[in-house]
Specification:
With about 400 residues, this protein is of the alpha/beta class. About 45% of the residues lie in helices and about 10% in strands. The chain folds into three domains: about 220 residues, 3-Layer(aba) Sandwich (Rossmann fold), CATH 3.40.50; about 80 residues, Tyrosyl-Transfer RNA Synthetase (Orthogonal Bundle); about 70 residues, Roll (Structural Genomics Hypothetical 15.5 Kd Protein In mrcA-pckA Intergenic Region, Chain A). Helix 12 packs antiparallel against helix 15, helix 13 packs antiparallel against helix 14 and helix 13 runs parallel beside helix 15.
Length: about 400
């Protein structure tokens, strides 16, 4: 299949520039495609998986992906999805985050023999001379068009501050595309739908400066059907770093996918054949849990490997049935010995464990029942102490989804 058909069938296409010309490019030769990743954290999150899987699917179709890390643009911060300025990071923090994030891409892309590349835009952006950049690049950008960009209008309409630093971000991202076009023959940039204007800016810059043809393709914003948000800003992000989100927690996140989203997520986040995806998506009722297990297993296997996925699956099944599970496979939350000795209100411990966001939210959940070890607790005033230790820890369970061990200090 043409790579564009693969992407469309699996739900990755929201908008594409010059679709017929891009289709011909995919048919006629190997296309070099890139996506950029912001070094705002030491770990990418599940939100990055959409574009990562776009690159991986195109590589499977014979094309060459570039993962571009923002060692340069990270010094500004992408304002596209922000209503306020990002905190500025030090160069040392940016470089450390880039190094950590790069390791996470190897699970999805084959970097052998130049089949994919990792590139850092700090290699060219940090050495730019300001006046040269303005003369050679800035002159191609119209302020009239830039003030009509969605994030600019949103900030101005809300009378929120928009610095010149952030306003200039589109110039830097566009220059990235031009530089990748010159260095590697890159003619396609992909991203989320919020990147559409930035991507078109880069393609237009390539046309104006080099007389070349370049394309843009963006994926739709992927959210749960209920509108539930999972992100760093919501405080419930799912990280690709196993030290931030364990394989078991990662598996559980996908296992708890809403019924209406199972087929869509199978198409986007796994490499399963679409015929199997559609078959699993048709399951209903209790049988739908099997489809969710397939989703959780496949996504976890891609990131953490088959062994970790199998352990997460067996642990999840055991806990779902109320059976014992290997302690090392269940996430832990540490508390100071003195705090446990003095006694911790269960409401506080549920917040610390990440089961709920606040004590106010914890109280009705406790009234519905929380299991501590083998004891079911419904008293919101319950105090957890050393007396609750069993086999070197305190096992907390809240519903089928939340399990946590508080190890003995």
């Amino acid at each position: 299949m043409n790579a564009l058909d693969v992407l469309r069938e699996r739900g990755f296409v929201y908008q594409v520039s010059d679709e017929e010309a891009l289709r011909r490019a995919f048919d006629e030769s190997q296309v070099t495609v890139y996506c950029g990743y912001d070094p705002t954290d030491s770990s990418l999150t599940h939100g990055n998986l959409v574009t990562i899987m776009m690159l991986a699917n195109m590589q499977r179709c014979g094309h060459r992906p570039i993962a571009l890390f923002g060692g340069g643009t990270g010094m500004v911060g992408d304002p596209s999805d922000r209503d306020a300025s990002r905190p500025l990071m030090t160069v040392e923090t940016i470089d450390a985050n880039v190094a950590a994030q790069q390791q996470q891409l190897a699970r999805y892309l084959d970097f052998g023999d130049g089949r994919a590349r990792i590139v850092n835009n700090g290699d060219w952006l940090r050495g730019l001379k300001f006046l040269d950049f303005l003369r050679d690049t800035g002159r191609y950008f119209s302020i009239n068009q830039m003030v009509n960009m969605e994030f600019v209008r949103r900030r101005l309409d809300a009378q929120h501050n928009l610095s010149y630093l952030e306003f200039s971000y589109i110039l830097l991202q566009s220059y990235d595309y031009l530089e990748l076009y010159r260095r590697y023959g890159c003619t396609l940039q992909v991203g989320g739908q919020d990147q559409w204007a930035n991507i078109l800016g880069g393609a237009d810059l390539i046309r104006r400066v080099e007389g070349g043809r370049a394309f843009g393709l963006v994926a739709p914003l992927v959210t749960a059907s209920s509108g539930r948000k999972v992100s760093k800003s919501e405080g419930n992000a799912v990280y690709l770093d196993s030290n931030r989100t364990s394989p078991y927690e990662f598996y559980q996140f996908w296992l708890n996918t809403e019924d209406a989203d199972v087929e869509r997520y199978l198409a986007i986040y796994t490499f399963l054949p679409m015929e199997e995806v559609r078959t699993l998506g048709k399951l209903e009722g209790a049988a739908l849990r099997r489809a969710k297990e397939v989703l959780a297993f496949e996504v976890t296997k891609l990131l953490h490997g088959a062994e970790a996925a199998q352990q997460a699956e067996s642990t999840s099944r055991a806990l779902f049935r109320g059976e014992a599970a290997p302690a090392e496979a269940v996430p832990t939350t540490s508390v100071p010995a003195a705090q446990l000795a003095a006694g911790i209100p269960l409401t506080d411990l549920l917040v610390t464990a990440g089961f709920v966001k606040s004590k106010r939210e914890a109280r009705p959940r406790i009234q519905q029942g929380v299991t501590i070890g083998s004891e079911r607790v419904t008293d919101e005033r319950y105090i957890v102490t050393e007396a609750n230790l069993e086999d070197g820890g305190v096992m907390l369970r809240m519903g089928k989804r939340f399990h946590r061990i508080v190890p003995q200090p």
